[in-house]
Amino acid sequence: MVRTLPTSISHGRYWRVVLLLVVLIGGLVVYERQRHRAGPLTYRIGTVDPRFGMSREEFGEAVASAAVLWQQAASKPIFKADHAEGAMEINLIYDYRQEAADRLKTLGLKIENTKGSYDEMKARFESLKQDSDAQNAKLTQDFADYNARVVAFNGRATDARRQGGLDEAAAMRLESEQRLLGPQKEALVRRQEELKTTLETMKGLAAVINDFAANHNLDLVNYRDTGSQLGPEFSEGIFEQKGARRTITIYHFPSHDGLVRVLAHELGHAVGIGHLENPQAVMHRLMKTENPELTADDVAALKAKLRR
């Protein structure tokens, strides 16, 4: 005969189990909150590409300046440098973004996330494209003419050897022509290198324009090999978290203040702050200004995050 417990006892055990689960879950929630609030997020400096002309110490000082902005707003430490075992790695990587910016400096152009900057870069690109097309056509023709002269010269020299040599006057004419061919070739090669530099500048300029245009629904410019470089927008930096691994990578900055602002933006992401609507905010998705100061919206977003 199978006996069952009284219903009242079964219910009592059920509610004790429920209560125990509630206590355990509550304890886990408290533990997680305490764990996140246990101390500041540690970071270390990773790769610092020397092409930026910035030492590791200078980059580290910029990171510290960006961290101070958030810590002053929170009135407590949020980040801490630990260059041996920091939980988050911060890198300065030189790629097409900074390369494009460096090339554009030679044109007197500065990369900014504004419609005016886009219009200026697009107009300069179209001007460069028109000039480079004309230069390329002229260079192609001049190379063809040079090659024809070389073929003719070689033909005359070969004929002379077959005929037993040239008289003194003919030999002097060939020698004079040969002396001219050398500098002509050097000039053509120099023009070819100059055109190559212009095309590389156009390539970087097109990448910047198209990144900005894609993000603002504006017209793209056509240039070969730029599509593979494009991201969703021209990002100065990025914060990434993959499992326990957290990294910040900076790709481009216009000035020291601009670097501090980009770092502050990515540090904001590192503590869980998303993008804000205020275009002047450090946490706006585009860097509208190089001013590294936090706005009231940035501070409010930080305090809301810390209260959770």
Helix/strand structural class? alpha/beta
CATH C-level class of the largest domain is Alpha Beta
Biggest sheet descriptor: 5 strands, mixed
SSE pattern: HEHEEHHHEEHH
**What's the pLDDT, averaged over the residues?**
80
Give the amount of beta strand, in percent.
5-15%
CATH architecture of the largest domain: 3-Layer(aba) Sandwich
| CATH fold topology of the largest domain | Collagenase (Catalytic Domain)
Envelope shape: elongated
CATH superfamily of the largest domain: Collagenase (Catalytic Domain)
> What's the helical proportion of residues?
55-70%
| Terminal CA distance | 56 Å
Summarize the structure.
With 308 residues, the chain is of the alpha/beta class.
Question: Which terms would index this structure?
Answer:
elongated, alpha/beta, 3 domains, Collagenase (Catalytic Domain), disordered N terminus, 308 residues
What's the topology here?
Layout: H1 7-37, E1 41-48, H2 56-74, E2 79-81, E3 88-92, H3 96-105, H4 115-162, H5 168-216, E4 237-242, E5 245-250, H6 256-270, H7 296-307
Parallel strand pairs: 1-2, 1-3, 3-5
Antiparallel strand pairs: 4-5
Write up this protein.
This protein is α/β, with parallel strands linked by helices and 308 residues long. The protein folds into three domains: 1-38; 42-100 and 234-307, Collagenase (Catalytic Domain) (3-Layer(aba) Sandwich); 114-228. The protein contains seven helices and five strands. A five-stranded mixed β-sheet has the order 2-1-3-5-4, with helices on one face. Helix 3 (96-105) packs across helix 5 (168-216) and helix 4 (115-162) runs antiparallel to helix 5. The longest helix has 49 residues, at 168-216. It is elongated, with a radius of gyration of 33 Å.
